[in-house]
Amino acid sequence: MHAAPTAAAVAMPAAVTHDDLSLRKAHERRAARSSGQAAVALVALSVICGLVAFVLCLAAEGSRSEVSYYLMSVGGSRDQLDVCFYGSSGRAALAYAVGAFVLLAVAMFAEHAYMLVAVAAPESASAGLAVAQDNPRVASTAATLTWQTCCLFFLTW
Length: 157
Prior knowledge:
Blueprint: H1 7-10, H2 23-62, E1 67-73, E2 80-86, H3 91-120, H4 122-132, H5 142-156
Antiparallel strand pairs: 1-2
Helix pairs in contact: 2-3, 3-5
Protein name: CASP-like protein
Transmembrane segments: 39-62, 93-110
Keywords: Membrane, Transmembrane, Transmembrane helix
């Protein structure tokens, strides 16, 4: 009679094969590591652009032109004229606001690029496939996920 396999025997790690030592596996590991570094760089770029855009919005608010209203009477008559004077042209505030808008657009582009990197990474694709196998509403291939991410990028712009 043979004994039933124990949980320890079933949970043993698989043996190292020739495929594990091949250059293809080394290339996949290197690609996964570089995609992780790219993802961190894109997130950092997005955060920095957001912070600088916030500072530019504060600068635009601080440099906006001041308006002054004067009530003037002409030559001692009873008719009064309402006159408005601006303290500056408002070009600096407009430049700050345009700069903030461009930086927010760059941050949004970096965020979408991060989504593409995260979906196209080899380890994220295998994890997504493991989750999506039993769910018919979730796309089951990495190519489909990448296509959906591209569509999301273009639809949000």
